[in-house]
Amino acid sequence: MLGVVTRSNLLGRNVMKTFIRNGSHGGVPGENLPFDIHNRHKLTLLFTVFIGSGLGAPFLITRHQLLKK
């Protein structure tokens, strides 16, 4: 039983070493995000639009339904 645990642990370490060695930048903050986090003002604007559209959509849909003839 202990041999199986040791082998799987070694396999996990080897996979991560290979992954980091073959193109991942490993440990760079924001490297794996689909948006740029270095421009604070742009990030704040995009975050506000993203969250605001999700929170405001039900109210806009309700308004549209109530104004229909």
TrEMBL record:
This is Cytochrome c oxidase subunit 7C, mitochondrial. GO terms for biological process: mitochondrial electron transport, cytochrome c to oxygen. Pathway: Energy metabolism; oxidative phosphorylation. GO terms for cellular component: mitochondrial inner membrane; respiratory chain complex IV. Belongs to the cytochrome c oxidase VIIc family. It is found in: Mitochondrion inner membrane. Keywords: Membrane, Mitochondrion, Mitochondrion inner membrane, Transit peptide, Transmembrane, Transmembrane helix. The lineage of its organism: Eukaryota, Metazoa, Ecdysozoa, Arthropoda, Hexapoda. It comes from the Eukaryota. It is a single-pass membrane protein. The chain crosses the membrane at residues 43-61. It holds the Pfam family COX7C. It comes from Pieris macdunnoughi.
